[in-house]
Amino acid sequence: MGGRRREGRLAGVFRGARGRVELVGVEIEVGVVDPRTGVSRPYAGERGVAALLELIARRWPGTAVVEEGSILGFRRDDGAEIMLESGCALEYGSPPAVGLVALVRRVRADLADLAALAHELDLALLSGALLPYDPSGHRTWAPKPQIPLMLDFFRAEFGTRSTGWAAMSRILSVQTTLDYTDTADRDAKHRTANLVSPLVAALFVNSPVWEGALTERLSHRLHVWAGVDARRTGYLPHALGDPLDLDKFLDAITGLAPIFRKIAGKAAPVPPGRSFRYFLDHGYGDGSYPTEEDWTALLSTLWPFVRLRRTLELRVADGPGHADWPAIPALWTGLLYDEASRAEAADLMRDTGRAELDALTAAVAEAGPAASFGGTPLRTRCADLVRIAKEGLARQVVQGLEDERALAFLEPVEAVAATGVPPAARLAEAWPARYAHDPATYVADHRYR
Fold first, then answer.
1. Given the DSSP bridges, would you call strands 233-234 and 303-304 parallel, antiparallel or unpaired?
2. Closest Cα to residue 313, out of 325, 327, 329, 298?
3. DSSP for 100-138?
4. Is residue 85 domain-resident?
5. Which of 47, 161, 380, 437 falls between 20 and 30 A from 276, CA-CA?
6. Where does the sequence pass through the membrane (predicted)?
7. Does 4 score more than 70 pLDDT?
8. CA dist., res. 111 & res. 306, Å (int)
9. How many CA atoms lie within 13 A of 262 on its CB side?
């Protein structure tokens, strides 16, 4: 990038592809666990995650992702990806699809195939929002050079208070990827998605268990994210702008310290205590300056609930059970791909600032839709949000943009809106008698198949 800031090149990643058709994709994180103990499996070994990736590479058409002799993922010829997460979970990334029904059909078939391959190795692919049976001290790290650099950063910045290690190794989610067609469309979708993220989180809370025991909260996953690094997670500065002030947005991001840089494609340490902006202006001290690969590396160490790139990646929801994941892309598609729904959804949270969103999300982690907002239970606004999404999706059906069968994907969140009972409450009720001492039953009930 040279020795001076080049805002145009930095901002290019936030500009998308003008006029792009509004496609939908998902990224589904799955735990790779022993089917009897529910404990996550290590990378190496006869029943390790590397063995599963190697089996996938033999059975699917495409290309294995290999770095320094270690298999880290697989790219199928049609664009689907299986990538190794830091803690040896796997992330399935779908090819973008025209419409929810086509997406769900393809992803369900792929997940069933992946689950069958895992079964051949006596492994299970676990749905949900975290790995509930991993005991204290259990770590299964992938062979990626950035992992020790990230762990060192969290320890140096936050000491024993840091939950960065847990975010890297214990939690799971289902993320939705949506398009924007121009700058104005980007800004409206980005702002609305940030504003309603606490409501979406409340509908999907699903992680009341940690290290084999019930906690006092409904989303331990959100609690983990809150302890990582407030500068990099949750709601980023200036994310509520419509229009988005891209200069201020970039200033906030480049003001962060990079956790690692890339040298010859490999993660490497960075001189500590300096911002990315400093390195843009002054270099790393060895005659080199940040590259586009370094900029991408910095962006990869931001984990907001709404991740803006050339698409919008929507990340707030806890991972649901294996049958209910289509509710997440269906909800977001109904909310953001219909202009009237987008405006009405944003109006539900009008005049809500970043600090209020942070506080509300923390309350949602504890109480889900029973959290209080403005003196009333959040459940009422959650119900309004589901109605708005369904109406938006129905209008897309009328316009020929969606198949009518997509409306059924919203049934899990319609049930939460009607009863006020989120998935975490059902899991907490079942835990003592059914799952606390029987991980095999939990895995059987929650594995992809």
1. parallel
2. 329
3. HHHHHHHHHHHHHHHHHHHHHTT-EEE-SSB-TTPPTT-
4. yes
5. 161
6. none
7. no
8. 25
9. 14
**Domain that includes residue 356, residue range:** 7-256+302-431
CA dist 56 and 63 (Å) reads: 10
Tens of pLDDT, residues 259-289: 999 999 999 999 999 999 999 999 999 999 9
Position 261 in a domain: no
How far is it, in rounded angstroms, from Cα 180 to Cα 205?
27
pLDDT tens-digit series, residues 399-431: 999 999 999 999 999 999 999 999 999 999 999
Helix orientation angle between 411-419 and 327-336, rounded to the nearest 10 degrees:
80
* Segment among 14-18, 29-33, 158-162, 186-190 with least mean pLDDT: 14-18
Distance, CA of 198 to CA of 358 (rounded, Å):
9
Number of H-type helices and E-type strands within the chain: 17, 17
Tell the residue number behind the tokens 């959804």, with chain if given: 345
Which secondary-structure segment (H or E) carries 347?
helix 339-348
Q: Residue type at 241?
A: G
217 DSSP 8-state letter: S
Classify each residue of 79-116 as buried b or exposed e, where b means 16 or more C-beta atoms within 10 Å of its C-beta.
ebbbbbbbbbbbbbbbbbbebbbbbbebbeebbeebbe
Report how far residue 228's alpha carbon sits from residue 232's, in angstroms, rounded to the nearest whole number: 8
Q: Which two tokens stand for residue 329?
A: 């892309």
Entry pTM: 0.97
Task: Identify the residue whose tokens are 């606390």.
Answer: 436
- Helix 339-348 to helix 379-398 angle (10° resolution) is 170
Domain assignment present for residue 441? The answer is no
Number of domains comprising the chain? 1
Biggest CA–CA distance in the chain, Å, is: 63
Tokens read off for 311: 């698409």
Which two tokens mark 31? 């735990």
Please check whether residue 302 is in contact with residue 232, taking contact to mean a CB–CB distance below 8 angstroms. Answer: yes
13, 299 contact by CB (below 8 A): yes
Alpha-carbon distance values, 279 to 2, 35, 163, 355, 443 (Å): 10, 47, 28, 30, 47
Q: What is the CATH number of the domain that holds 328?
A: 3.30.590.20
